[in-house]
Each structure stands twice: as C-alpha cells, then as structure tokens.
Amino acid sequence: MDLRGLKYFQAVYEQGSVSGAARVCFISQPSISSAIAQLEQQLGVELFVRHPRGVFPTAAADSLYPYVKEMTNGEKVILGLFSNTPAPVPLRLGLMRSLGAKRMSHLLTAITERVEHLELTLVDPNEPCDARVILSSGADSHQEFIPVWTDSYYLALPASWPLAQKELIELQELDGLAFINRSPCEALDRLKGRMTEQGVKFQPRANIRTIEYAWPLVAAGVGAALLPDWQEIRDVPEIQLRPIKCDPIVQTIGLSVRNDRRHNPVIKEVIAACNEQGDLVPAS
Fold first, then answer.
1. By C-alpha distance, which of 251, 257, 132 is closest to 185?
2. What is the rounded CA–CA span in Å between residue 267 and residue 129?
3. Is residue 154 packed enough to be buried (19+ CB in 10 Å), middle (13-18) or exposed (0-12)?
4. How confident is the model over 191-228, as pLDDT tens digits?
5. Which CATH entry fits the domain spanning 99-104+134-284: 3.40.190.290, 3.30.70.660, 3.50.50.60, 3.50.50.100?
6. Start and end of every HTH lysR-type domain (predicted)?
7. Which of 14, 129, 162, 269 could form a disulfide with 92 if both were Cys (CB 3.0 to 4.6 A apart)?
C-alpha cells in the first residue's frame, strides 16, 4: 500500500475537500483524486462522498483515519531518529468559541509545558481532531467527557443603566430590553426559551458570534448580554453582573476524547493539563 496515497487520504479527510488537500500537499487536484481512487479500489470501499463544496467522509474513512494518522506520525518519529532535531509531536485540539481568552491561554500553556516538542494545531471542534474542549452537551457515547469548568450565566448590564442597580432581575424586566445577541450560545437559547414561555419579548440590539466581543459592547452601553461569571468580566467597572430570577443557567465545559484514544501518552498529558485548570470553578 502506497504511503503517499495514505497521506493524501489524510489531507482530504482533514481539509474536507480535494482542493484543500492539494494546497497543503503542494500537488495537483487530479493527482489527489487519482490516489484516493486507487486507495478505494485497493480497499474495496468508498472513502468520500462528493458534494458541491467538498467531500464528506464515509464510515469507512472514519475507521481508516486514526490508523493512517498513527502511520504518518510514526514516519515523523522515524525521521526524527536520524535528524539533529527532535521529531515534533502533533496534536490537533478542537476549541469551542466561548472558552475565554484567558482560560484558553492558561490551558495551552499547561499543555505545551507537559508535552515536549509539541506541534499544536487549533481547529474548530467539528473538524477532525485528537481531543476537543466543548460543552458537556456536545459529547457523545463514543467519547469520554472530562469536566473541567462550570460557568454560571448572569445578566451583564451597563453600569449606568437604572436596572443595573437592582440585585435581582425579574424575567419580566427583560421585556423589550436591548440585548447583545450571540449565536451560537446554548445558555442564551435557554434564556430565550424561558422568556418565550412567559411572553417576554427578546429584543436584539446587536448580533455577534464571539463572546470576547460581547462585554465591550455592554461596557459601551449598546445593550445587555447573558455572560458567564468570569473574573475578567467582573473586573470591568462599566459592567454589572446580576442574577435573573429563574432557574439557574449553568454550563459545564470539559475535554472530550475518543474512548480508544484515552490511554495515548499525549492525550493523557492533555487530560492532566485540563485537570490542573478548573476543578469545576469559573475561570479567574
């Protein structure tokens, strides 16, 4: 079996398209397609389903990928044995958007200190990766979820607003309140559901995706936002965090790893680094 063809398979799997694989492999698209077709013929299976924007991996490709990745990583180790520089230790880590910059920095520092010669690639949690930092709701039965942090969500209000002077916010007081709408956000979706149940109108003032953009907008007086109780947010004098009188909105964030990767030496170090971080308390 041609190792080069397996490398091209790995590139297509990770990039999600033949064109993307061609770019990272510095080779033409027809060469990639030909190598995949030859590999499919050798194995007697279909590895990818083509669609207008790229390819979807089949179940056979999902089964093949971890073995190919180990083979290509092994090649790097072998080459490293006969070079003057240590072989890099690759790690693809999926990170959710609302982890928080400070918390992410602490985690990545801990991982890099634990794993020598680490070659770290940060990707979206939905992309192929060795481990993912996600919400507990995102893990499935084929993965082990190690809880790390628990975030309690509060209403973040501009300190100058009269509503910010209240210690507890009634759900009805959110009716028509200017909100910073962040999507995707499971916590905010839960609040919207409770507001709908009570006939309370959700009024978006701004629409964003990244949590780090939310509290500067609140501090500027643009609107209110539902935000986690992070110390970096509490330290902003222009913002007041207030609890909402309803069922608490809490989310658990942790590390998700495939069951068959749990005892991989690098993954074990990543798990240890995560266990050092949160102890199920908000980031500080």
1. 251
2. 11
3. buried
4. 999 999 999 999 999 998 888 888 899 999 999 999 99
5. 3.40.190.290
6. 1-58
7. 129
